[in-house]
Amino acid sequence: METKQKAALKAKLKRRAKTLGMNLFGVASVERWEEQPHTPPAYWPQNIWPWARRVIVLGVQIYPSMLETTPSVVYSELYNTTNRFLDEAAYRLANFLNEEGYRAHFFPRDCYGDISVLVKKPEAAFSQVLAGLYAGLGTIGMNHTLLTKEYGPRVRLVSVITDAEIPADRMVKKELCLGCGACMRRCPMQAFTPVKGQIIARMDKFKCAGYHQKIKNEYRYPCGLCTAACPVGADKKRWGSKAVSAAGIEHCQDFGSKNAVANL
Ligand code: B12
Ligand code: SF4
Ligand code: SF4
């Protein structure tokens, strides 16, 4: 493929992603997995799918006005919808690439059977956070999520893996995390412990997953308070500090979940 053709295909994919409702689009070359120190070779896309050359990462925003009611069925429904939305958009983009003659498929936004598995082994076969980092969408914050300048950590991700060698994006150089600790203070499980000289905190994933098991049983999964608390992101300016009132949070939590029944 000629350089001009590669750039034209990337522009076409970006337009399609936008039409499919995606807020963020970035491209990582698979070499990034080798260059960066984060995962052993078993996780590298090119070792799982030998034809893989690029990973296209798509992101969709999470509305703070719904997230901040968490744990509630309001956020739970938003979460389920973003999941469908992401997987469908990635499927369609991969399909388009197949029709253009390339190999492509998507890696589902999460890819685990149930939270009861994550409480024992809180890990998946492919990291959307690292894919987003390598595709230039943002940097990893103290709370282990990908922070973006547009939406802070309030963005969910999915990847399309392909052999179409479109131009890769540059990684973000400037750390977006402010090190303010708001995520850590807001966590109901105290899952984070700061590490001196390092932005990313130590995280007790088992504590976090255990809490998720509890609130899933109450039909108000997931938590996400550490993403709601984060001040990074242009979205925070748009929504202001009170995207939902304190009374509104309680009100939303009083309907549609086991918590509502327990409070009767
Ligand atoms: C397992 C899982 C969980 C587990 C474990 C959490 C965890 N942080 O690992 C539990 C159930 C606890 C969980 C909770 C949540 N999750 Co979750 N989860 C996943 C899942 C399915 C797999 C993650 C994984 O195992 N990847 C593979 C491993 C190898 O990589 P990794 O965990 O991503 O970790 C890398 C980096 O953190 C980095 N890293 C870690 N430590 C350090 C230290 C240093 C110094 C450096 C440089 C790098 C570094 O390197 C790691 C690889 O080794 C992903 C979806 C996916 N398939 O990626 C979503 C995902 C990470 N979750 C997500 C979200 C939003 C949440 C919640 C907020 C709940 C919610 N939806 O509201 C909470 C927040 C937890 C948190 N603060 O991290 C989003 C994050 C989006 C974003 N903007 O980053 C993802 C990407 C889902 C998605 N498709 O968007 N989750
Ligand atoms: S999702 Fe909730 S329990 Fe898990 S780390 Fe974030 S604030 Fe803590
Ligand atoms: S809340 Fe503060 S410390 Fe936590 S990820 Fe966001 S900017 Fe970093």
Give structural notes.
This protein is of the alpha+beta class. The chain has one domain. Helices cover 41% and strands 13% of the residues. The protein contains 13 helices and eight strands. The strands form three sheets. The protein has a four-stranded antiparallel sheet, with helices on both faces. The chain has a two-stranded antiparallel ribbon with strand order 4-5. Strand 7 and strand 8 form a beta hairpin. The longest helix has 27 residues. The protein is globular and about 65 Å long. It starts with a helix and ends with a helix. The mean pLDDT is 97. Bound molecules: cobalamin (B12) and iron/sulfur cluster (2 copies). The site of one iron/sulfur cluster has 14 residues, from helix 8. The site of one iron/sulfur cluster has 11 residues, from helix 9 and helix 10.
Topology (elements, then pairings):
Elements: H1 3-19, E1 24-29, H2 31-35, H3 45-48, E2 54-61, H4 64-67, H5 73-99, E3 104-107, H6 115-118, H7 128-134, E4 139-140, E5 146-147, E6 155-162, H8 182-186, E7 192-193, E8 202-203, H9 205-217, H10 225-228, H11 234-239, H12 246-253, H13 258-262
Antiparallel strand pairs: 1-2, 2-6, 3-6, 4-5, 7-8
Q: Report the radius of gyration as a whole number of Å.
A: 19 Å
> How would you write the strand order of the largest sheet?
1-2-6-3
Let me know the average pLDDT.
Answer: 97
Strand count, sense and closure of the main sheet?
Answer: 4 strands, antiparallel
Number of domains: 1
Structural class: alpha+beta
**What small molecules does this complex bind?**
cobalamin, iron/sulfur cluster
The best one-word shape is: globular
Oligomer: single chain
Strand content: 5-15%
Low-confidence stretches: none
